[in-house]
Amino acid sequence: MNRILATAASEFRIAFRNRWVLIATALMVLFSLVLAAAGAAPTGDVGVDRLSITVASLTSLAVYLVPLLALLMSFDAIAGEVERGTLPLLLTYPVSRLQILLGKLLAHLAILALALVLGYGAAGVMAFVTDPASITALPSLWRLIWTSVLLGAAFLGLGYTLSSLSRRPSGAAGLAMGLWLLFVVLYDLGLLALVVTDSGGALTTHVLPVALLANPADAFRLFNLSAASAVAEAGGIGGAASAIALWKSAASLVLWPVAALLLAWAAFRKVTP
Amino acid sequence: MTSTLKISHLTKRYESVEALRDVSLTLEPGMRMALLGHNGAGKSTMMKIILGLVPFDGGEVSVCGGAPGSAAARAQVAYLPENAAFHPALTGEEQIRHYLALRGEDAGRAGELLERVGLGHAKRRRIGTYSKGMRQRVGLAQTLIGRPRLLVLDEPTSGLDPVSRRDFYALLDGLAAEGASILLSSHALTEVEARTDRILILARGRLVAEGTLPSLRHEAALPVTLLVTPAAGAAEPLAAALPGAEPTADGRLRLDCTQADKLPLLARITAQGERVADLDVIPPSLEDIYTHFGHGEAA
């Protein structure tokens, strides 16, 4: 455990020096405030508090931004060590490869969590200032934070996997961007095409729910939207969301980080310095 | 006391290339062993096998009684890679603190370790601003953590100035005196000559010679060179008295002879009396021995 913490402390320091902490936090705060401000306009008489609307907007933002930040922080993790030539020495130390990965994960998660809390927090404060009734939506903000951390953990693990597989930072960066595009953009486009062509057939009812759960980004969106609709009864947000039980998307969100870490471990073990 | 490192019949193949073939060696506590060989002779590969970084195909390797790369072995082995590299964003002190923590040692000792390698003044600067020699010293500092039983040093003095080299070898002498075994590779043959107990020569993945420097000299049976400086005006009669002597560019006479002929030849030279102003005996250098064994072995 001490070795994991020591690795995490070192990684956090490096990320801090490389301005990653600053960049991640600034990005999250900036985007959150913009969304909070933009979301303030069309409310009025919807009958929903400001924070609920802000959280709904932040959910859509997080689906894109959290995986992106996670991949940006993780693609260099192993490939960078290989390129700098620091990996052989590190691997002769009495520290296992899993401990190294866990240390990096811990540091990167801490940075991500910091950025999320400050970013969402800023948006939350803005909602409270303009609408004191927002206090009722506090649980949904909290839910958004921890699910975002889980989503980030999944993509951090996937980033380490790509970093181990490519062994060169430039290659890993390319793969990471490809993965982001695939999971966050193309995947949903594909599912949309499926729904349109199938028009309510067996594919939509059977394949679509599984396909949504199989993608951590979709599981994240699903969980937050269905949880929100359960609370605020803001129906119509997603037909698919209500069709899938809440525990399923929650399970997907928890299982993905574990699976991604195991994948990263398997890939890292194959790296011969 | 058991051997710190025992390798028997080690074989390693990279696809069709045989990187190491039937290499055996034993390293006892307190012994300093130098590994010599051209680039690609298999030195770094052998070191990486000992460290457990690279798997091997045949033979047996035992490091501090365990398998190479096992937790027990890693806890007792220190490594200095060729061209030691560290994250440029960390300071020397932060980097050493991290390594101390990974070995379960008190991170507060980082400053003291950096003092020992002469980096105390720069410990709060980022490694990115260090020169190559300074990075090499950070590498040396981390090998001193936690009293290792075996030190594996790949080209440890590259990038160090002569004074630092002397300090470095003094440091190694101290560690060896405390019972640590040292395996180092080097291109600087002259410094290895005086500072190691045993010399190993690798050529094309095979161990072509092993022993102390005198025993290798004896085995190679290379000629000894004698350089005679004639007294003023005595160059010509001296040359005539010593058949086979070749005049050198600086006015001296050069004679090559076998080890067995050395003493009779010396007697003949000293018999010339006042015609001889000075005499130097140059034994075959490690470089010559190295060349002899390195090339003598047919592929």
From TrEMBL, chain A:
<feature type="transmembrane region" description="Helical">
    <location>
        <begin position="20"/>
        <end position="41"/>
    </location>
</feature>
<keyword id="KW-0472">Membrane</keyword>
<dbReference type="Pfam" id="PF12679">
    <property type="entry name" value="ABC2_membrane_2"/>
</dbReference>
<feature type="transmembrane region" description="Helical">
    <location>
        <begin position="105"/>
        <end position="129"/>
    </location>
</feature>
<keyword id="KW-1133">Transmembrane helix</keyword>
<protein>
    <submittedName>
        <fullName>Cu-processing system permease protein</fullName>
    </submittedName>
</protein>
<feature type="transmembrane region" description="Helical">
    <location>
        <begin position="250"/>
        <end position="268"/>
    </location>
</feature>
<dbReference type="GO" id="GO:0005886">
    <property type="term" value="C:plasma membrane"/>
</dbReference>
<feature type="transmembrane region" description="Helical">
    <location>
        <begin position="53"/>
        <end position="75"/>
    </location>
</feature>
<feature type="transmembrane region" description="Helical">
    <location>
        <begin position="141"/>
        <end position="162"/>
    </location>
</feature>
<keyword id="KW-0812">Transmembrane</keyword>
<feature type="transmembrane region" description="Helical">
    <location>
        <begin position="174"/>
        <end position="196"/>
    </location>
</feature>
<dbReference type="GO" id="GO:0140359">
    <property type="term" value="F:ABC-type transporter activity"/>
</dbReference>
Automatic annotation (TrEMBL), chain B:
<protein>
    <submittedName>
        <fullName>Cu-processing system ATP-binding protein</fullName>
    </submittedName>
</protein>
<keyword id="KW-0813">Transport</keyword>
<dbReference type="InterPro" id="IPR027417">
    <property type="entry name" value="P-loop_NTPase"/>
</dbReference>
<dbReference type="InterPro" id="IPR051782">
    <property type="entry name" value="ABC_Transporter_VariousFunc"/>
</dbReference>
<keyword id="KW-0067">ATP-binding</keyword>
<feature type="domain" description="ABC transporter">
    <location>
        <begin position="5"/>
        <end position="229"/>
    </location>
</feature>
<dbReference type="InterPro" id="IPR003593">
    <property type="entry name" value="AAA+_ATPase"/>
</dbReference>
<dbReference type="Pfam" id="PF00005">
    <property type="entry name" value="ABC_tran"/>
</dbReference>
<keyword id="KW-0547">Nucleotide-binding</keyword>
<dbReference type="GO" id="GO:0016887">
    <property type="term" value="F:ATP hydrolysis activity"/>
</dbReference>
<dbReference type="InterPro" id="IPR017871">
    <property type="entry name" value="ABC_transporter-like_CS"/>
</dbReference>
<dbReference type="InterPro" id="IPR003439">
    <property type="entry name" value="ABC_transporter-like_ATP-bd"/>
</dbReference>
<dbReference type="GO" id="GO:0005524">
    <property type="term" value="F:ATP binding"/>
</dbReference>
